[in-house]
Amino acid sequence: MISREITHRIRGRIKNLSPDHSANLVVRFDRFDPSSLDCDLTVNSKSHLFGELNSLFGRDCFTTLEIENLDDPGFPIGIVAITSFSQQLLHDHLTLSPSEVRLGFDPPTSDQDSSFFVAVELTPSRILGSPSAREYSSTGAITVSPPQSGDVMFETKFGTWRIIESFDFLDSSMAKKDITNVVQGTTVRGEITVPKGATMSDVHDSVAENIYSLCLLIGFCYRRPVRAYDYQYRPKVRTESTRHIARVRIRTEPYENRDRDLGLIEYPGLSSGGLDQLLRSYREHPKRDIIRRVMTYLSASAASPLLEESFFLSVSSLDLLVGALDKSQNHQIDRALWEELLPMLQESLHTFCQDRKLDELEKIVAKRLPKLRHDPLASRICRHASATEIETNDLWPSLGFKAGIERTISARNDLFHAAKVSNPGAMYGDRHRIATLVERLLLHELTFPSDRLNYHKDRELNHINTRP
């Protein structure tokens, strides 16, 4: 059985402050809790190092400390982005709240290439696992029979990586009886090579970039933010420079699990090359940055417990997507006609305001005149949805698509400009309808095959449409 809490204690020097004074550091975190990460730093309160720390933390709340391990130089520690700290009165003890800790990073460089096994833990768990039937025996045996086969794999610059369900076991007791708890997780596994003379930090940045794209796409499929919180680099062959497991621990708030069948794309659609196809389409898309922002807003909208915030993020993602992809350039009036019409409008405005001495009004209205050429947002959304030929009839079946979009945009404007919510029930339903519309537009842009989508993906939408 394994221990939940992992603790590292070192005696070291803070390299980016006074290197002549030592400090004792304790790093603790719960192996299964992404939100747990604490650091205790003890220094001599009589040394000027203590004063430097207080000055540094007081000046910048996103401080990074690099600590050299005096007992084991091959296992340095980096404490990244310290967001807060507390100090015990009249003592030399500081409790740090970092957003990230790097353990065993950048030991002395090797004169040859080094290979590592990589394991990255994701939150929430229970995503991208193979649907299975479990049979529990009175002997304690657990038999798992997966009804479907196929690995969830994707290509990186380092080679082919895969996502698996991982399981750990913990002993506990209840009512004086022994209990074995099964802890389920979601783990990305792969391999990397650190070239000779390079550091682990150089390679980790590239790994983190690949994992970020992966989490973004899985969050889109799962309709929930997905984040990485633990990176482990285990050397294939232990040498003097690679005898430790390098680790990056990131503090992040875990999100609750959802039923598997509420996702947009589940295990069957992402296995056997589905995830790699989705990632490749995303990486090669010319508007990748726009899609990244839209997916980020969309998953944040689904996770927000506040209706107003969730609704606003959902509509903002649609506004951003249509604004970037609409081929009409958002113009309702032809350029030649507009160049003829605009001077006439400006002259009429000037004559009207000059006779009445309304100079300030003229300046205000003149700035708004160019916007008359642009289509309203509702018109652009309807035109773009029609051009893509995606399904829209089931979004507002009783109201109609155009009327539904206009109601949603009006509610967004009331919320933004007046902090007003006239109909919370309609806002809740429209938030789901807009999210569904954005998903369909994104799937169209990424050319993801419809036969790989989850059969129950529209269950929540259908339930909303049955309400009066």
Describe this structure in words.
By secondary structure, the chain is an alpha+beta fold. It has 3 domains: 5-103; 114-283, no CATH class; 321-332 and 374-465, no CATH class. Helix content is 38%, strand content 26%. It has helices spanning 48-59, 200-222, 267-270, 274-284, 288-303, 307-325, 335-356, 359-368, 377-388, 401-418, 424-445, 459-465; strands at residues 5-14, 22-30, 38-42, 63-69, 77-87, 93-103, 114-123, 133-136, 142-145, 152-156, 159-174, 177-194, 227-235, 246-250. The longest helix has 23 residues, at 200-222. The model has no long low-confidence stretch (mean pLDDT 83).
Number of extended strands: 14
Arrangement of strands in the largest sheet:
1-2-3-6-5-4
Number of helices: 12
Query: What low-confidence regions span 5 or more consecutive residues with pLDDT below 50?
Result: none
Concise overview:
By secondary structure, this protein is α+β, with helices and mostly antiparallel strands. The chain contains 12 helices and 14 strands.
What are the defining features of this structure?
468 residues; alpha+beta; 3 domains; 6-stranded antiparallel β-barrel; 12 helices; 14 strands; globular
How would you summarize the topology of this molecule?
Layout: E1 5-14, E2 22-30, E3 38-42, H1 48-59, E4 63-69, E5 77-87, E6 93-103, E7 114-123, E8 133-136, E9 142-145, E10 152-156, E11 159-174, E12 177-194, H2 200-222, E13 227-235, E14 246-250, H3 267-270, H4 274-284, H5 288-303, H6 307-325, H7 335-356, H8 359-368, H9 377-388, H10 401-418, H11 424-445, H12 459-465
Antiparallel strand pairs: 1-2, 1-4, 2-3, 3-6, 4-5, 5-6, 6-14, 7-12, 7-13, 8-9, 10-11, 11-12, 13-14
Helix pairs in contact: 2-4, 2-5, 5-6, 6-9, 6-10, 6-11, 7-8, 9-10, 10-11, 11-12
